[in-house]
């Protein structure tokens, strides 16, 4: 009887872990910034790059990350009607990146350009981080403003965990730096 | 008394067996999904990453990924695939160039991963696929230096130019060439930009798969 109870508990645990990724969807949060976002940063979408600099996290913030968390700074271009447009109407394609973020990476997708870190719990408190994705403009780049977002996600056991994101700006102008 | 001891022994052994089966099931399931993250809008795959493995599933994961390369090499040797090779030490640009065999092996380089040894951070250099590794790295770092306004960050790029080591390269080549290159003693892990579990999920959900190269550095820094 006891063994059956143990088996049932293990089974329920495995099912729960499997379903956790399916049940929860990405959650948009009102700009704080929240705990996963650097408490200070300067960000910009430019003709030749997207970048974040002077990005800092506190020790308290870093203590809330676990080993599976990743953080992304996303730039989403949109046209004058407010519709998202493909970044390849502005830049040629993915660019080189240089960063002192731990396990830095970048993306160049259909609706956003990103600089990111896959190892949030290796961040050092009060250290000034930078990440620049160097880009090349197309010959006749689309006119756009940018939504700038801070987003975190997590790989947990056997599937992704809920993402959280918050929007810093909805109409950032190209070649202009913004700070919080 | 004897009956009680026998009953207790069976209970303990049964519990241990159940736990072992559960752990084996978990490690098998988790090895299948390592590096695959299901986000709301897309499926992300972190190619080359070993951070999401643990003592239970790492070897299973590495064996699975090695089997993917071997199967492609055997079943479709002339077919083209894209892979990420991670080195077990920092190589010079020339050593990486030599390992990849240059144009002789029809290897088209996509990205070159460099870092200053023993320091956190990296640069990922997008290759034109035409030039040699040393020139591509220098050219891109020069562009970063020219475009950067922050004096401290500019200085970091300058340092990278003279102190970098190459720790990974992603490239496209035929599967036979990939199998051969993967045998180099300088390569720690070869991972393909193809994860069947992610592709299956993409077919079911309609979500796009985004492959992100995230190789690990040989010095253990991030």
Quick description:
The complex is a heterodimer of chains A (180) and B (222). Chain A is of the alpha+beta class and 180 residues long.
- The separation of the N and C termini of chain B measures 58 Å
Q: Supply the number of helical segments of chain A.
A: 2
Please list the strands of the largest sheet of chain A in the order they lie side by side: 1-10-9-4-7-6
How is the largest sheet of chain B built, in terms of strand order? 5-4-6-3-7
Structural class of chain B: alpha+beta
Order of helices and strands of chain A: HEEEHEEEEEEEE
User: Unreliable stretches of chain A, pLDDT < 50, 5 or more residues?
Assistant: 19-23
Written as H for each helix and E for each strand, in order along the chain, the element string of chain B is HEEHEHEEHHEHEHE
CATH topology of chain A: Immunoglobulin-like
Q: Segments of chain B where pLDDT lies below 50 for 5+ residues?
A: none
| SS strand fraction of chain A | 35-45%
The fraction of residues in strands of chain B falls at 25-35%
User: What structural class do the secondary elements of chain A suggest?
Assistant: alpha+beta
Cα-atom radius of gyration of chain A? 19 Å
Overall tally of domains of chain A: 1
């Amino acid at each position: 009887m006891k063994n059956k109870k143990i088996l049932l508990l293990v089974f329920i645990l495995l099912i729960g872990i499997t379903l956790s990724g399916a049940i929860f969807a990405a959650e948009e949060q009102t700009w704080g910034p929240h705990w996963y976002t650097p408490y200070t940063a300067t960000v910009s979408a430019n003709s030749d790059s997207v970048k974040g600099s002077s990005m800092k996290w506190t020790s308290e913030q870093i203590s809330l990350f676990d080993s599976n968390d990743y953080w992304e700074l996303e730039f989403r271009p949109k046209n004058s009607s407010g519709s998202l447009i493909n970044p390849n109407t502005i830049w040629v394609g993915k660019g080189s990146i240089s960063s002192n973020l731990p396990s830095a990476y970048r993306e160049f997708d259909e609706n956003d350009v990103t600089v990111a870190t896959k190892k949030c719990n290796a961040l050092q408190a009060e250290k000034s981080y930078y990440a620049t994705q160097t880009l090349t403009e197309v010959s006749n780049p689309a006119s756009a403003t940018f939504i700038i977002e801070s987003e975190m996600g997590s790989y947990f056991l056997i599937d992704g965990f809920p993402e959280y994101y918050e929007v810093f700006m909805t109409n950032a102008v190209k070649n202009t730096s913004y700070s919080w | 008394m004897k009956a009680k001891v026998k009953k207790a022994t069976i209970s303990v052994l049964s519990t241990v067996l159940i736990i072992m089966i559960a752990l084996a099931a978990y490690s098998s399931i988790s090895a299948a999904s390592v590096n695959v993250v299901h986000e709301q809008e897309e499926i992300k795959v972190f190619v080359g990453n070993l951070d999401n493995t643990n003592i239970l599933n790492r070897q299973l994961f590495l064996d699975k990924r090695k089997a993917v390369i071997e199967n492609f090499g055997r079943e479709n040797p002339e077919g083209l695939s894209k892979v990420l090779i991670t080195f077990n030490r920092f190589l010079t640009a020339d050593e990486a160039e030599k390992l990849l065999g240059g144009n002789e092996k029809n290897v088209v380089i996509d990205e070159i991963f460099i870092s200053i040894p023993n320091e956190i951070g990296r640069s990922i250099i997008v290759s034109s696929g035409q030039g040699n590794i040393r020139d591509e790295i220098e050219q891109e770092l020069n562009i970063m230096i020219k475009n950067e306004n922050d004096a401290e960050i500019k200085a970091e790029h300058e340092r990278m130019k003279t102190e970098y080591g190459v720790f990974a390269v992603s490239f496209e080549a035929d599967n036979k060439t990939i199998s051969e290159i993967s045998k180099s003693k300088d390569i720690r892990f070869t991972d393909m930009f193809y994860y069947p579990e992610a592709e299956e999920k993409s077919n079911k959900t309609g979500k796009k798969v985004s492959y992100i190269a995230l190789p690990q550095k040989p010095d253990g820094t991030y």
